Queue: 4 jobs
Job 1
Amino acid sequence: MAPILGCIADDFTGATDLANMLVRGGMRTVQLIGVPDENKVVPEADAIVVALKSRTNPVEEAVAQSRAALKWLENAGCRQFFFKYCSTFDSTDEGNIGPVTDALMADLKTDFTIACPAFPETGRTIFKGHLFVGDQLLSDSPMRNHPLTPMTDSNLVSVLQRQTEKSVKLIQFATVEAGSEAVSAEMSALKAAGGGVAIVDAVLDRHLFSIGYSLVDLVLITGGSGIALGLPENYRRQGLLNETAGADAIPAIPGHAAVLAGSCSVATLGQIDRFKADHPSFGIDPLRLADDQNVVEEVLDWAREKIPAGPVLVYASQPSETVRAIQERLGRAEAGALIEEAMAGIAKGLIASGVRRLVVAGGETSGAVVSALDVSGLRIGAQIDPGVPATVSLDDEPIALALKSGNFGGPDFFAKALAAMP
Ligand code: ADP
């Protein structure tokens, strides 16, 4: 059976977040990394999420990548499409949310879609078109100082209108609160009036469910992962999706286990402390890495000796004062790249030494590891901690992977992740 839903996500961890949400809704989901090759076999799944890295690319690149992903998903037989971006609507007046939406609408020959980044579970709500992050307007939140996509206007109707040729409308809270019939009626009225893109207010999960119910006839949906909450139920009602249990099934992968940490977030530092207490660990000194090529080999020699007895931890993570001192010596980007390259080399060496279960902490670090290991896609399993699922790579020699961005996961995340990937 062909997949039902084809998703295009503008970054890696956002893709995983959406995939995790769909699996929780009972859809077997696969995440593909980058635009798939034309002749890539369509994996057996109800939903496919193509993870791009297009959030802050030049507009033309983001549009081209998104269109290529759409084409592949259309050829794979998907019947509904989802453009996933961040729940804080990360973009600039140039894009990329507006231009990508315009291009996907043109390719799908549709003149109406919605834009709904609301995700109440993570504090992202929309009221009267204004996006809130927790108790603050988006424009008062730390997102106003984001280095790449500073968000200084919380009114999503204005924000999106500056990025798109379409007319941007608002489906008001009162309509959403009145339920899905009211939302559907409003969508029909907007379509009849010439279409465009509608920002949709949503404050509670139940609003996302009633909006979700009204999305049955839209070929394209755009938003955060929250809006995917109501989709699996639509497919069940349409008779497209039968299974409710077993969507999160992934095969057990026998082999040695290791944890690689490159995130310096407070959560990751706590997780490292907890895991170190009862597992062998190796802390990499970035300053040594800068002038000594042999650190990676040294780590691997150490690890090869330890892994037969149980999981090991390799980390570069340090508290913020130490990181600042290292960045002053090496440069911020240079230090990051040097450590990511080392982590990538260590991951490759560990796999060559029989490691088949790998936990990686850090968004950029995960990206570096996945690309070093040539992972083309992931089957998404059960959630380990909010937003982080266990996964298994789709390749001939599968690896179990838990990839988490810095601040995710409880203090015992590493042990919990390894237990979830037996
Ligand atoms: P997060 O998800 O917490 O943002 P990332 O992996 O995305 O984690 O980013 C962390 C960055 O910090 C990476 O580029 C990593 O290489 C770098 N890094 C890790 N340890 C150190 C350190 N001790 N000093 C400087 N930079 C570091």
Job 2
Amino acid sequence: MRTQVAIIGGGPAGLLLSHLLHLQGIDSVVLESRDRDYVEHRQRAGMLEQGTTDALRDSGVGERLDREGLVHHGLELRFGGAGHRIPLTGLTGRTVTVYAQTEIVKDLVARRLADGGDIRFEAEVVDLDASAPRVTYRGGGETRTLDCDYIAGCDGFHGVSRPAVPGLRTFSRDYPFAWLGILAGVRPSTEELIYASHDRGFALHSLRSPTVSRLYLQVPPDEDIAAWPDARIWDELAARFATGDGWKLHEGPVTDKAITPMRSFVAEPMRHDRLFLAGDAGHIVPPTGAKGLNLAVSDVIILARALTERYATGSETLLDGYSDACLRRVWRAEHFSYWMTTLLHVDPAATAFERRLQRAHLDYVASSEAAATSLAENYVGLPIE
Ligand code: APR
Ligand code: PHB
């Protein structure tokens, strides 16, 4: 069996890459270890930069996104019992869109299948050869090989692609906290997202639709979810979001509950021979600011352009520049996610001095147009080169 590009992983990165290549007449096969239902229902951050929305729309998969996505023009920083609005659009001329990753994955799977695309679910890659190049996968009780021109490693943080890059240099930071996230069947208590910094810890009020709220609480990194019955979650959220003006948090049935660790991670380079890493396979950001999906999208846009050039002209110039081009953007987002995380969370080891500095920084971002603009331009996303 043979294809032009073997794509390992059917998350947002692998699926979008397959779609972008198809638009350029390039064949691919997506090998995904999980089943379709699993990848279509995995809960992740759902905030799209304008560049991500544009890319989905321009490639013809934005129809439902345009109908159901919620366009946001600002966000709220809440601390000291009061809210401070950051007018994202006023400061940058750009917007962000709330649209769940589950829906992006559903749209991409549907589109690939409608276009005759080859997505193999429950096909786990067990070996790859970046020089042949070739991937070996297991599915339906059999082991098969797929020969190709290039391999795209879009298999997330725990995949097999990254370990196949020899001489990799990695950079990482683990944070002394995690996020407990819930989905709740209740009308959001806010129109714009609220990022709350409180002495009890960070909280985020996001949303999924006019009837579904998405909320997060900072918890200790090794926290047992059993310690968080629904009533405790609502009490804690109410305490961290409390303001002096009678603002009320709407409570409702919790339909999903999970704890996510917080990590920053970058692997360099993102290429070895004919293997290219993209998305979470190459880098992880903490979820504050929701850069993960947006980085996965910019990686595969850069990779699709490079492969298009290669097949159209034979030139490998863009492929040779792939890792550097991605890493410039990755490191900017790494810094922003780290910055926003440390600005808003309570580090249990922080000294009183450090807590006062953090508060001074929050006051500065909330009161200085220059500081707020810096947050805003990173939040709405810097242009893809
Ligand atoms: N063989 C085949 N598929 C694999 C293998 C393997 N050996 N290992 C992992 N996979 C699959 C996983 O099951 C998963 O569906 O690769 C896919 C990787 O998808 P994601 O984890 O969603 O990663 P990515 O597509 O890069 O998307 C990045 O995900 O974690 C979030 O916040 C992050 O939004 C960002 C997005
Ligand atoms: C989300 O809606 O899941 C979300 C939004 C913004 C973030 C993180 C997560 O910064």
Job 3
Amino acid sequence: MTPLTLPPGLTEKDFNDALAEFRRIVGDQYVFTGDALSAYRDPYSIEDDSKFSTPAAVAPDTAEQVQAVVKVANQYGVPLWTISAGKNHGYGGAAPRMAGTVVLDLARMNRILEINVDSGYALLEPGVTYFDLYRYIQEKGLKLWLDVPDPGWGSVVGNALERGIGYTPYGDHFMMQCGMEVVLANGEVMRTGMGAMPKSNAWQLFKYGYGPYADGIFTQSNYGIVTKMGIWLMPEPPRYRPYMISFQREEDLEQVIDVLRPLKVNNIIQNAATLRSLLLVAGINATRSQYHSGPGPIPDSAAKKIMADQDIGMWNFYGALYGPPPLMDVLWGITRDAFASIPGARFFTPEERRHDNDVLKHRALTMRGVPRLTEYSFVNWVGGGGHIGFSPVSPINGKEAMQQYIMVRDRLAQYGFDYLSVFAIGWRELHHVIELIFDRRDPEEKRKAYEVFGIMVREAAEAGYGEYRTHISFMDQVAKTYSWNDHAQLKFQQTLKDALDPKGILSPGKQGIWPARYRQGG
Ligand code: ADP
């Protein structure tokens, strides 16, 4: 069992007094200590767990309770780490950045406050998971689609706040966010955008309101606790056609990405499509040991066998068409012709895939917003499935994608890891999300994963590639790579932090932003 770390600077008595206050606010059964805290560990930590341990968790049920908890936290100097569903796996899960931080668990605040079908939006509390919202929409027979990440057990609010992605045309979750209610570090509650006007009925319709636009500073941030959020939902289209295109050669990556760019920038590809590497796709249906038992990354001969067995390519593009059939026919014609210029490209519909458990059959559901867990099984590619996400951003440019791919593939190979990745195609950029898969029972594997990850962050930054999001173990390192003009942005973020949260109680260290209290001397 990990030894208990108390919040820095607190005596055991102060800590216990604060917990007693929390109990008074939320009820005894919603303050967790001891064994119950195992739910707040990062299951995929690659460092000593004690670095991210929490001494307690508190689970309020209303924004008023959140305000009361924050006031007590200020009074005693108790740091709080906010989570919604706590499934931020690969980036730290529910665990806090700093040992001794109490987890503020908002899972109980799971009310669907409003759904407007005509205007296509929902107003949600943070604990509403994709599964909850999907079930609600199905039960009511509403003609709306969600946009879900894979897997779908997280919360709509937590994912949008982390600027996560999905796979329908609404795949950029923060872009689809509209209006927030936020409890600030001083215990006050505010509403953003049109929500700041008491009688406005456009809170979930117009994002910007009046004056400086605030919502962005509450994403990937420790400036506030979001207690309500609006999210735009896609009207169910008349028809839908998912497809897959496989490419046979490693070096095809360059051409695939260059073909993609004009298709995406001109909106011919309607959705947040993805290009998936061989092993990420293969890992849904197979494990490494079926193909290779020795150390080091899998050899080319095994890769060829996997391609043949699963009828997949070195690279596999998953996209979808949405709308009336004549529109889809036109878009598909342009897309197909463009990709057909790549030798060996093969085109599939879900019906044309042989295996029942084929990835296109799963993605056909994901790309229409059905939340699932199936495609998470790639984490079992090696035994003892652990994973951590390395996620640099680049232009949609073939040469740069190739450069990133070779850089990461070779570094991982040097440390004995396989390359499993997805290139998620954004509006103007690629999120190159590499899943570093390791055996979490093996301390040496974890040590190697930690070492190679740090090297990759440094090398990516030297080449101009920054992570869009990262694991708690690397938040400081990644923050320091955004260093233009003597870290001007980080200094601005720290200035805001100190103004909004002078006692430094909200999520210290989140995204490398430390309050003055913990910066000094460190
Ligand atoms: P998910 O809902 O996808 O499981 P988490 O609950 O793990 O996501 O949240 C991911 C991260 O987003 C957290 O570590 C936290 O930093 C931030 N976060 C989550 N919910 C909130 C919230 N309601 N207010 C502010 N930040 C939040």
Job 4
Amino acid sequence: MCGIIGYIGKKNAFPILLSGLKKLEYRGYDSFGFFILGKNNDFLLKKTGKISEYKNKSQKNIKGNLGIGHTRWATTGAVTDANAHPHFDCQKNIFVVHNGIIENYKKLKEKLISEGHKFSSETDSEVIAHLIEKHFQNNLEEAVRKTLKKLRGTYGIAVISKKDPEKLVAAKLGSPLLLGINHNEFLVASDPSAIVSHTRQVITLDDNEIAVISPNDFFILKEKPIEKIEWKIEEAEKKEFSHFMLKEIFEIPESIEKSIAGRIIPDKGLVKLGGLEEVLDRLKKIEKITLIGCGTAQHAAQVGEYMFEEYIGLPIKTEISSEFRYKKPILDEKTAVLAISQSGETADTLEAIKEAKRKKCLTLGIVNAVGSSIARETDAGVYNRIGPEIGVAATKSFISQLCILVLITVALGRQREMDLVTGKKILNELQKLPELAKKTLEQADKIKELAEKYSEYKNFFFLGRKYNYPIALEGALKLKEIAWKIHAEGMPAGEIKHGQLALIDENFPTVCLCPYDSVYDKMKNAIEEIKARKGLVIAITTEKNQEIKNLADDVIYIPKTLEMLTPILAAIPLHLFAAYLGLELGLDIDKPRNLAKSVTVE
Ligand code: G6P
């Protein structure tokens, strides 16, 4: 932590910087420094010790309307005068104060030295001054812009150049920086305490913004970070598979791995989601969460509702994006709206986010397509990182969305009531899922046989309860999309006795999601009710379960896991079942009739 300050205007800069810097002392107090661009003489000071104890008897002689100051909390380089800021280039033309850490400074420094630059400190910050020198042609902001592109890490900086003397340039990434605006004068500072005695009008700079300030005016440049497409060209090819949908289902174990890689701190039962870091404090204050999405993504949202409600301890709602914005939802700044979308372009979801923003909600996204509209529109979010999904029906992206919902459950749960043991247990089991998904996929041939066996039937029910109720909806949707000659309906198992049971007979098969969980006995009852009406039952249950095997006509097993993770495994056979049934009916499972992958119309 360090504090930085800068001044440009008509007044004498030094006393303003001195008093402002004293207010920032809590941010670092092992050394301090100033640079004032003087009318006749410049003033440079770099000194160990506390700014509060600094006395300058000849203050009156320090004259200049442009200056920067810094109070240091050493990170790279010992506490010495030389390591105190401001840092300067070889010609002492460029002066920089920096708060943050330049992670790649060693490499940059070596290269600059090999190009002839002479360094006078051990700090990471000094590379900034030399890089600006290297890139300087005739305009300071352009040299700063080029320099920032080379830096990895965090920074709040204020820069002055003698060669472009009527200017103060400030920029930030990850470290705080404010621009204070007064009549004919401007200040920049790490926090408001340093400038509030001069002005209450401020602009909080955002990451990647560069403020270019002259005595009379300012403008802000937004530097758009370059994003990297992580997937490789082979990922958009079918390889040995006949269809993308099949390839993508078989990629599920790898997609789970990619979705959770590097995001779990196992021994602490914690989750690290870089994309949410900036809003973590705001998330702590959230009082309710609404999850939105369309189609399969909406089913993921529904599973998320069960996870969040059980473990985060907040009121949670799920909405269909296209309904959300028209029903006048009651939202405020204490509501987080989490949008789930593979493509990041679904118009209904995008418009719903805009509505949430108008109502001042915190907007979050779970998105696969990097840089897509939803990724850009939301305040923060988590990428799936699973490469392209080409088959129109969402499969691996659904599983990945569920995994990320588990991560968010732990991230937000641990901010609230979830204890270490529960956090560890969930994450531990989540890490086993790639293997368990592989095991589930080993039954592909069996599922193919079932698809052949049931391909003559025209109607299916899909039943589940609790965590697997949305999976019943998903199983039915997949069958309708992919094997569209068949009609299917998903519903909560408890509901069939209130109506749908009337349809059941020997021509109406039902897929029952019945893993060992807290509603197992209730699901078993539903199967018995169907069997009593001569209905056919395909059951998805936990491995080794004999009881269900004896009751149902056919069984698909999934490995044992935590209740909240069962939907992740249970969805896999349903996706395969739909794919094989579609193929059995001679349909193009990658491009189902009348549908599109990315629906960009409302
Ligand atoms: C379309 C696709 C579905 C998908 C839905 C939401 O309807 O056919 O497979 O679930 O859009 O898409 P998104 O990209 O927002 O996840």
